[in-house]
């Protein structure tokens, strides 16, 4: 039996894909949109966050220059007072994707002295998802800002879909049925 290289590569990729859990369930929000996480321009992070509908399963992404900024998740009182002395978690890569795993408020500040005080802080208020088991893509009103990336196309396929697709591809690629 002669196996076509393209068909074999495709099948290997499909098998690998079907072995990976589908973890992308929600929207990806870039904090500060195109401005990113910065003190330049005094971006209004509170206004940005109030125009979003964050839900469990979404991801918030902080993009910034790591030589000048960081991201610290802090308590409510530390958020209000801009206290960076006892963060829950500190992120320093400059491209931090943080999955939202629970409802409630999630407080983030920049821990560089003075940055939080000039507004480099955001309160992410998370509600529960209104749909169960599926991807949730927020809808934007005409005056709001939509997330820069929405649900990954990978989340649109289930393992059930793959169990139907792969045998069909095997039949067409190898010319036989089982």
TrEMBL record:
Domain named Phytocyanin: residues: 27-128
Molecular function, one GO term: electron transfer activity
Species per Swiss-Prot/TrEMBL record: Papaver atlanticum
Signal peptide (residue range): 1-26
Protein name: Phytocyanin domain-containing protein
A GO cellular component entry from the record: plasma membrane
Domain of life: Eukaryota
Pfam family, one: Cu_bind_like
Keyword Transmembrane among UniProt keywords: no
Region described as Disordered: 129-155
Lineage: Eukaryota, Viridiplantae, Streptophyta, Embryophyta, Tracheophyta
